[in-house]
Design a protein that fits this description.
This protein has 138 residues and is an all-alpha fold. Helix content is 69%, strand content 0%. Helix 1 crosses helix 5 and helix 3 runs antiparallel to helix 4. It is globular and about 50 Å long.
């Protein structure tokens, strides 16, 4: 039945949300070695931004996998808090005539827009019972 929450599984929902974010951001391409920060720094600016996001997401995902299933959705909120705090610190340090602040807000809103569409996709998948689960267990 559509919209039936009887078989709602927060762990699966969490995995679907992260898979949706992965589709938009991508997975890290640079391996997490002792030189990963420098390797990312050497990339073109746009590429390094994407790679940093992918690494941040991978780290958050790893942390949340160690939490009990019922807390996993809260882990997404925790990632958002960390990101927001760091963005605030950087904006505060770099604040000039407000241009950087405007860029920050614009990027934040872009991210919110992507997040809302990921959430809508996942909600649609769950409601119609086809979860597109392509995880490979190793």
């Amino acid at each position: 039945m559509c919209g039936d929450l009887e078989d709602y599984d927060p762990g699966k929902h969490f995995d679907l949300l992260l898979a949706g974010i992965n589709r938009h951001i991508g997975r890290p391409r640079i391996p997490s070695t002792s030189t990963w920060a420098q390797d990312i720094a050497n990339l073109e600016l746009n590429e390094s931004n994407k790679e940093l996001l992918a690494h941040f997401l991978a780290m958050g995902k790893a942390v949340s996998k160690h939490r009990p299933e019922k807390e996993q959705l809260e882990c997404i909120a925790q990632m958002a808090q960390i990101h927001a705090y760091l963005s605030g610190v950087l904006a505060g340090v770099l604040l000039d005539d407000g241009t950087l602040q405007k860029i920050g807000i614009q990027k934040f809103l872009e991210g919110v827009s992507v997040g809302r569409s990921v959430d809508a996709d996942v909600a649609t998948d769950i409601a119609h019972g086809h979860s597109h689960d392509h995880r490979h267990h190793h």
